[in-house]
Amino acid sequence: LTSYSPSPASRRDSAAAIRNMIPAMSKANLRENIYTIPNILTASRLVAAPFIGYCILHDYHAMALGLFAYAGITDALDGWIARRWNLKTVVGTVIDPMADKTLMTVLTVALAMKGALPLWLAVIILGRDVGLAISAIYYRWISLPPPKTFARYWDFSLPSAEVRPTQISKYNTALQLGLMGLTTLAPVIPAVDMSTPLGVLQYVVATTTIWSGASYVYSKDAVKILTPQEVEEKKAEEKRAEDKKTDPR
User: Fold this and answer.
1) Coiled coil: which residue ranges (predicted)?
2) How far is CA 233 from the centre of its chain?
3) What gap in Å lies between CA 154 and CA 94, rounded to an integer?
4) Can you name the residues that pair with 181 across neighbouring β-strands?
5) What is the dihedral of CA 69, 71, 73, 78, to 10 degrees?
6) What pTM does this model have?
7) d(CA 196, CA 202)
8) Distance between CA atoms of 82 and 97, rounded to whole angstroms?
């Protein structure tokens, strides 16, 4: 029997091959910490949305208004915390508007079913959101780092694309929430006639909804697909923020 000992040249080639594989493997497995306070607050809004719809449909107006107020407070709070303590994540840019849209969809459907919101306005709001949802699914798939699998598609700790709301979309979201809040408030204080302000606000929201939908189509900055280098930079920035929290010096 003879023993095999690889030549120095063979060992060098093997070592070089391993070194070349490491960057590719690290890029494929880049992940970010998604269990942050802002993301948890955002997730709580997602959970609260169906309960708000249930309360509206069953005429629990005060409870619906209270949950709606909670959703509005957490919406403002999670963004402030993310900016204040540098806890922004790529998944946050996805689930934050998702939570807003889920809440808006539930409110729109529930209020339309109760006759508190005109059907034509509900169709405009929901039609825009369906179009944006289809676009989000498409961009998530084409920007997902390989290998593209169903399991990895739903693993939002894998950054792939950033959704950046347009300016008109931010105004539209505020106006829509204002309309839904006022419509939810109306049954709580029946002594106050809100028909005129609600009618005006409904037409304003219809206009901004159509405008904001078009802005996502024509704005080149609304959706950004991350390159491997940008993913690495985000990971490095996140690590620096973690190190700063553990060692403030």
Assistant:
1) none
2) 21
3) 12
4) none
5) 180
6) 0.67
7) 10
8) 15
